[in-house]
Amino acid sequence: MFNPPNRDCEHVADLQFRPSLGIVVQKVLVPPSLKVHFNELDRYLAVYLAQATPNSRMTARQKLTRLTIQQFHELSTDVYDELVRRKNIIEVIPFLPVRNEFHPKRNQARQKLATLPITRFEDLSGDVHFELGRRYPEFKEDPLGSTTRPPVTTFDFGLR
């Protein structure tokens, strides 16, 4: 039985011939949901990101670089969904509901997100936000072409 791919999880390439360069350029179209995830995490983490020590979570962030596009998109979606659940003060939901179209292990991982203390959830959210910005640098730019916040220096002077 053939299952069509989930178009929201994969990147679609748009090949264009550039005669002036004499080459074919591949433009990758990013699922719009990832930009929403980035913007919401950016707002949620504003204070956290301003206070974060550069390079403090490099080991965790390196692990995210090894995820496939689909694995990372699923993680980003799950963290975003958990953020929305935590921000919903009108209706208290103890954890993300089970979705039949997801693998049982993914549903279990989604429910485990609810058990993370705020600091751990901020760390995970910050790592996902960082990886979204690394994979899709265009997310860091506003329509006028400037970055959303001043770039953080990568120097570590050992001051703690």
UniProtKB/TrEMBL annotation:
Q: Which residues form the GIT Spa2 homology (SHD) domain?
A: 60-90, 109-139
Q: Show the stretches that span the lipid bilayer.
A: none
The record's section on InterPro entries has: GIT_SHD, Spa2/Sph1
Q: Which GO terms describe its molecular function?
A: MAP-kinase scaffold activity
At the top level, the lineage of the source is Eukaryota
In terms of Pfam families, this protein maps to: GIT_SHD
Signal peptide feature range: none
Q: Mind telling me which GO cellular component terms the entry cites?
A: actomyosin contractile ring; cell cortex of growing cell tip
Q: What is this protein called?
A: GIT Spa2 homology (SHD) domain-containing protein
